[in-house]
Specification:
The structure is a single chain. The chain has a five-stranded parallel β-sheet with strand order 3-2-1-4-5, sandwiched between helices. Strands 6, 7, 8 and 9 form a four-stranded mixed β-sheet that branches. The chain is globular, with a radius of gyration of 20 Å. It is of the alpha/beta class and 309 residues long. The protein has helices spanning 4-16, 29-42, 60-70, 81-87, 94-116, 127-132, 167-176, 201-221, 274-287, and strands at residues 21-24, 46-52, 75-79, 120-122, 157-159, 230-244, 247-260, 268-269, 291-296. Strand 4 (120-122), helix 6 and strand 5 (157-159) form a beta-alpha-beta unit. Helix 1 (4-16) packs across helix 2 and helix 2 (29-42) packs across helix 7. The chain is built from nine helices and nine strands. The structure holds xanthosine-5'-monophosphate. The site of xanthosine-5'-monophosphate has 17 residues, from helix 6.
């Protein structure tokens, strides 16, 4: 039986969509739930887009493609990595990064919408996105790419049927729709908000490798009930001295961030087992030659946000 929550999302889509729409799907839980609900609401009048920004995780494109196919969602995958990385060149300010990413997404979507004769853009924006982007008269904590990152003038009409939901509501919907509920959240701006300082192709490659190692270690090494709610690595703009064999090295520093939360509005840092951390740290420095130091983030939210930028 369809829950009232799912029914209300389907209804919102059907009421607001008058023609064709495109849907921004990052492969994260929020936009994946929206993609399935939209298929139920409007069938092939909606095309879901996954944009390879060059800032996605290893294997992400394949995973999202399989998801679209499993749920028979009308989709298109676009490679815009040169465009995104080009626009971000030389940018180090976190808010500017987020705004440029939001703006680039919209430009990509507007172009695709013209090709499809679509007037609407569906986004899986949820309450924490707009609250932290300065909604409800609050201070801007960070401009979520799908809210504060949107340009002032855009031609597409926005439909955001999940605006009042929180992460735990989305998890319930996700279970109801048969999506992978063990999947951790991943931010729309991707690895950009986890690369502190300038984003270059080389730095993205380093973070991609470390991210895979962190995810693999946690997903294979910690039973699902005890896994952190969200876990990832952050590449710092700090180089430090190390020793590899009997040679001096001067390399990258990565931080491990793992948080226990239910709704992403607050959270506590995950208490890892020390032996697990030692193994993970050794694996990272052995397998990613440019990294010679691994540090652990032991900050709750608040005062820190989950993502570093
Ligand atoms: P913060 O860093 O604000 O993160 O404590 C809260 C949750 O939101 C995710 N996050 C984002 N998700 N677009 C998204 O779709 C964004 O711009 C964005 N920024 C943060 C973050 O991964 C965490 O789960």
């Amino acid at each position: 039986m369809t829950s009232n929550l799912l029914k209300s999302i389907i209804e919102k889509i059907q009421t607001n969509l008058n023609g064709r729409g495109i849907l921004a799907c990052s492969g994260g839980t929020d936009s994946s739930v929206l993609a399935v609900a939209s298929k139920m609401a409007a069938g092939n009048n909606i095309t879901a887009f996954f944009v390879d920004t060059g800032l996605i995780r290893e294997g992400e494109k394949k995973r999202v493609k399989e998801f679209f196919e499993k749920f028979e969602i009308n989709y298109k995958i676009i490679d815009s990595s040169d465009l995104f990385l080009g626009n971000l060149k030389g940018v180090t300010d976190p808010e500017l990064k987020r705004k440029l990413i939001g703006d680039t997404f919209i430009k990509v979507f507007e172009k695709e919408a013209i090709n499809l004769n679509a007037e609407y853009l569906l986004q899986g924006t949820i309450a924490p996105d707009w609250i932290e982007s300065g909604g409800k008269n609050r201070d801007v904590i960070k401009s979520h790419h799908n809210v504060g990152g949107l340009p002032e003038h855009m031609h597409l009409k926005l439909i955001e049927p999940m605006r009042d939901l929180y992460k735990d509501d989305v998890r319930e919907l996700s279970a109801e729709l048969g999506l992978d509920v063990s999947q951790q959240p991943f931010p729309g701006p991707g690895l950009a908000v986890r690369i502190i300082g300038e984003i270059t192709k080389e730095r993205v490659e380093v973070l991609k490798k470390v991210t895979s190692l962190v995810e693999e270690a946690i997903e294979n090494g910690i039973k699902s009930g005890n896994r952190p709610w969200q876990y990832f690595a952050v590449l710092l703009p700090v180089k430090t001295t190390g020793v590899h064999g009997d040679k001096r090295s001067y390399g990258d520093t990565v931080a491990i961030r793992a948080i226990d939360s239910t709704d992403a509005m607050t959270g506590t840092f995950h208490r890892f087992d020390w032996d697990f951390l030692e193994e993970l740290s050794t694996k990272i420095t052995n397998e990613v030659s440019t990294v010679n130091r691994v540090v652990l983030d032991i900050t709750d939210k608040p005062p820190a946000t989950i993502e570093w930028e």
